[in-house]
Amino acid sequence: MSRAMDSILKKYRRAGIDSLIPMLQDVQAEQGYLSKDAVAEIGRHLKVPASKIYGVATFYNQFRFEKLGRYHIQICRGTACHVKGSATLQKVLEQQLGVKAGQTTRDGLFSLEVVACIGACGLAPVISVNGEFHASVKQEEVGKILDVYRRRAESEGGV
Amino acid sequence: MITIEVNGRPIAAKKGEMLIAALDRAGIKVPTLCYMKDRFPTGACRMCVVEIEGQKGLIPSCAYPVAEGMKVQTHSPRAVNARKTIVELLLADHPDDCLYCVRNGNCDLQKMAEDLGLRRRRYAGEKSVWKMDLSSPAIERDPDKCILCGKCVRTCEEVQGVSAISFAGRGCRTFIGTAFNEGMNISSCVYCGQCIKVCPTGALRERSSIKEVWGALNDPEMTVVVQHAPSVSVTVGDAFGVKPGVDMAGAMTTALRRLGFDYVFDTSFSADLTIMEEASELVQRIKTGGKLPMMTSCSPGWIKYVEQNYPEFMGNLSTCKSPQQMMGAVIKSYFAEKMGLSPKKIFSVSIMPCTAKKFEATRSEMGTRSIPDIDAVLTTREFIRMIRMSGLDLNDLEPDTADTPFGERSTAGKLFGASGGVMEAAVRTAHYLLTGRELKVMALEAVRGMKDRKEAQLEINGMKIGIAVVNGLGGAKPLLDEIRAGRDDLHFIEVMTCPGGCINGGGQPIDMNMDAVKARMAALYQLDAKARLRTSHSNPSIMRIYKEFLGDPLGPVSHRLLHTKYMERKVLN
Ligand code: SF4
Ligand code: SF4
Ligand code: SF4
Ligand code: FES
Questions:
Q1: B352-409 tens-digit pLDDT
Q2: What dotted CATH number matches B1-126?
Q3: Which of B163, B169, B170 is closest, CB to CB, to A51?
Q4: Facing A52 at nearest CB: one of B163, B181, B187
Q5: Where in chain B are all domains bearing CATH 3.40.50.1780?
Q6: Contact yes or no for A50/A61 (Cβ under 8 A)
Q7: Residues at CB less than 6 angstroms from ligand 2
Q8: What does the pLDDT look like over A86-112, one tens digit per residue?
Q9: In angstroms, what separates the C-alpha of A101 from chain B's closest C-alpha?
């Protein structure tokens, strides 16, 4: 068990099932996602089957079950972005990356997340990659944006 | 008792019961999809809605308690219309797949569509598409056909105590899945198949081996041998309109020969063999201070459960293979030798009440030198399909008897089909081994019946022997926890994964009618009460196989062929 996990379990030493969500949030904050090991640990700690924890966690959009990619793409699906076509944008992103929202590409380069509203409605439709905002994204531009990060990864190395 | 008025007629109801129970007793059928008898209602599907005077909305009868004088309309136009709409909406997101579906003709959803007279697709929309899960050797899942009634989830959790599956996601993306939506093969599923039996649709089913079996039957090079489990002969008749529980062993044997099997054996024979080994092992453990309590090992779902949930108890499991595997092992050794056949040219099939047996047969320990003990496992349901495909009807077939050299069975072996049966059979032989005398009263009433747990204290040769029978896997955890906490008065524990035992196994005909299960149980006890040969150790075929081939129980040949080992399993649970 990792030290981080250890300290989370300590924090919730005498916790019951009602602490499940805060525990999951802590784990995600720590690891960026909910790993199988972490879910199993929490399950043993709270005496809840892993399938139930997974069931609860998938009810909420905030939890992910795969490691974040090197570049984490958030696509805004708030009202303004929706009106400006973010649904199509999400589809194009999913197609080009070959993953669905919540997943990470095989090479570990990109992960995709749908968020409710980033609060940048003036820039709709907007995506953010590791915090860098891309405004008024048209679907034809998706490929170019992804290429920017692919080149950056290449020049920085390390993947 | 109180009186309520239903559709203008008075009917009797028990105070406090749910309306649907009273309706059911009065023979008034209200359709249900999520209702589970004797379990807390979830009110999820709304199929069971009725009109109750004084209530504005429609009321789900499965979740509404009766009250004196209440006036109910079960089939008013409003109620029927509501049901129609529910089914129409379900069908709008359902594959139109009936003709190719394993539940064609035996599906609750299909039946409701027919009963309600749906003839038009009124709602059209995008259908959800999910991946099938074909990962496990025993259970297949087709989520497109799932209507989210939740019965599988409840059965797995509340009845079996496994919780391999759960609701996940939300809204129109809700689905039933394992932890991390992984394949069943790496989940904590023990393959008991109880979820299949409660599923109203074809979303859950066994992994079928029918094709391989036809292949072998049509291969002139192969000698195809079949064994059938003790409980199959008292359940297979259900599909042919035979009264629940009538023993059809004779007609079944004929059917198997007509299907083209070269040799037909009764697994009850190897159940006798299991008892010889297991009773000897128990006596040895008691005499030599071995690990106690010893626990039975014939129910593969229970074995997997111990391996993954309580590995500390693996040493308590009897090392005996199950009767299926013992039969498989002696077919490809003793029988092959006797008949001058190469084990490689024998295709060994078993017909089982069980889906977990499919998994058991694939375990790598279950065979010698790359020759598996068993080549294919069919459930009772698959067997019924094969009989039908061949245009046979069990009612029309003259009874026939099983083949030698495994022709005789005692009724002790037959009792394996019911919860408590292995215990009874083992006690008969253990008593003989310890005292040299037969039990005066064979029937051990204390371990019979449908209670979750049955315990007794026996006295054999002045020694107190504590026994416990766990009826259904859900009862295993409490007992194991008692033992973990220090309980030490038990010597022998039987655990059957399925409630009621194999007669209610996950591979049996689909119906959760507990009355039928009781009838099947009664049939086995009646067979035993009337029989002459009631103990495994007095079965002449058993004596012969030890004399000619095996030597002594627990001897080297037995050890090699009839015993096995267990391994800790890491699963997400
Ligand atoms: S599950 Fe029932 S309704 Fe659905 S395709 Fe199969 S038989 Fe038809
Ligand atoms: S087969 Fe048994 S253990 Fe597996 S999901 Fe179904 S009920 Fe649960
Ligand atoms: S798989 Fe079957 S039992 Fe389970 S929720 Fe779906 S329809 Fe109901
Ligand atoms: S059967 Fe009553 S709500 Fe489903």
A1: 999 999 999 999 999 876 899 999 999 999 999 999 999 999 999 999 998 878 878 9
A2: 3.10.20.740
A3: B163
A4: B163
A5: 211-562
A6: no
A7: B 139, 155-156, 160, 162, 164-165, 189-195
A8: 999 999 999 999 999 889 999 999 999
A9: 13
Cβ of A58 within 8 Å of Cβ of B187? The answer is no
Q: Which CATH architecture has domain B139-207?
A: 2-Layer Sandwich (3.30)
Q: How far is the CA of B118 from the centre of ligand 1 (A)?
A: 14
Could you tell me how many helices (H) and strands (E) chain A has, helices first? 7, 4
Residues of B in contact with A52 (CB under 8 A): 163, 166
Q: What single letter denotes the amino acid at residue B305?
A: Y
Instruction: Name B402's Cβ contacts closer than 8 Å, sequence gap at least 6.
Output: B253, B264, B265, B266, B269, B409
First to last CA, chain A: 26
Rounded to whole angstroms, the Cα distance separating A51 from B123 reads: 33
Q: By C-alpha distance, which of B350, B238, B342, B225 is closest to B300?
A: B350
- Is the pTM above the cut of 0.90? yes
Task: Cite the residue boundaries of each domain of chain B with CATH code 3.30.70.20.
Answer: 139-207
Alpha-carbon gap, residue B571 to B573, rounded angstroms: 6
A65 chain-B contacts, CB cut-off 8 A: 180
Judged by a CB distance cut-off of 8 A, whether residue A114 touches chain B is no
Amino acid at position B264, single letter: V
The CB density around residue A20, as the number of other CB atoms within 10 Å, is: 20
- The ipTM, to two decimals, is 0.88
In chain B, which segments carry CATH 3.10.20.740?
A: 1-126
B49 beta partners? B60
H or E element: which one contains B558? helix B556-562
The gap from C-alpha B261 to its chain's centroid, in whole angstroms, comes to 24
Inter-chain residue contact A43 with B167, CB threshold 8 Å: no
Domains of chain A from N-terminus onward: 3-59 (no CATH), 71-155 (3.40.30.10)
B516: helix, coil or strand? helix
B281 carries an active-site annotation: yes
Decide if B167 touches A, using CB distance below 8 A.
yes
Inter-CA distances, A14 with A1, A51, B32, B187, Å: 19, 22, 41, 28
C-alpha closest to that of A52 among B166, B187, B155: B166
Question: CB-side exposure of B550: number of CA atoms within 13 Å?
Answer: 26
Domain B211-562 in CATH 1.20.120.1200: no
Residue pair B333/B485 in contact by the 8 Å Cβ criterion? no
Catalytic residue at B127?
no
- Backbone dihedral angles phi then psi of residue B333, each to the nearest 5 degrees: -125, -80
